[in-house]
Amino acid sequence: MSERRDVITVNADPRQRVRIASDVLSWKPCAVPGAVWKLLEHSGGAPGSYTALMLWPDRQPLDHHVHEAGEEVLVLDGSFADEHGEYGAGVYVRNPPGSSHRPTTRPGCLMLVKSRQMTAADDLRVVVDPRRGRWIAGFGEGVSALPLYRRGSESVLLLRLARGARQMPHRHLGGEEIYVISGALRDEFGEHRAGTWLRYPAMSSHEPRSERGCLLYVKSGHLAKPQ
């Protein structure tokens, strides 16, 4: 996906804890014709790395483009397709640095997009469909996980908390990032409803739980290396 080239720094300091309820943000135009986004973080500069929710309109093609520093996509609603396949709601796609494609969408697509946040060592293309993935138990009673990607200290997974589940208290040695896909998550910092993006800096800690149940995208270990 593409980004506007006039964006200033937004939540760029990984040492800062951030909570954004995306439903209070307005959709803004981005470089994809007709598409809009809600920017969650941006390193500044042009083009700069970013994390955003992107709403891509029905039947709007994109030009063939190269992911110079990689792209990570979680499809939240709708679907898109490219030369390699079709990706529906829930599918996780990781396009490594140097990869390229020409995506299209027919029903339209809502995505969580993380762009230009990889290194040359991230050379693996990953596609995970949670309907076919293997969920594993752990991380507390009523909690299950679907691993999406792991390399070194970085881990990406989907985390599911059943109604009334409580995750074990834990410290984020290398930081943690959460997007609440559905339901609501609660911890010492309040209740986080669907559509909330959270960033916990390195060495922070919390004890998550969910009264109603929730599904989360969780990325950890990527914000700072443990000392």
Give the SSE map:
Elements: E1 18-21, E2 28-29, E3 36-42, E4 50-56, E5 65-67, E6 71-82, E7 85-88, E8 92-95, E9 99-101, E10 109-115, E11 126-128, E12 136-137, E13 143-151, E14 154-161, E15 165-166, E16 170-172, E17 176-187, E18 190-193, E19 196-200, E20 204-206, E21 209-210, E22 214-220
Antiparallel strand pairs: 1-19, 2-3, 3-4, 4-10, 5-9, 6-7, 6-8, 6-10, 8-11, 12-13, 13-14, 14-22, 15-21, 16-20, 17-18, 17-19, 17-22
Keywords:
227 residues; Jelly Rolls; 2 domains; eight-stranded antiparallel beta sheet; 0% helix; 50% strand; disordered N terminus
Per the CATH scheme, the topology name of the largest domain is Jelly Rolls
The biggest sheet amounts to:
8 strands, antiparallel
Based on helices, strands and strand pairing, what is the structural class?
mainly beta
Low-confidence stretches: 1-5
**Structural domain count:** 2
Question: What string, H for helix and E for strand, traces the elements in order?
Answer: EEEEEEEEEEEEEEEEEEEEEE
| Shape estimate | globular
Radius of gyration: 17 Å
What does this structure look like?
It is a single chain. This protein is an all-beta fold. It folds into two domains: 18-128, Jelly Rolls; 136-220, Jelly Rolls. Helix content is 0%, strand content 50%. It contains no helices and 22 strands. Strands 1, 12, 13, 14, 17, 18, 19 and 22 form an eight-stranded antiparallel beta sheet that branches. Strand 17 and strand 18 form a beta hairpin. The chain starts with 17 loop residues before the first strand and ends in a 7-residue tail after the last strand.
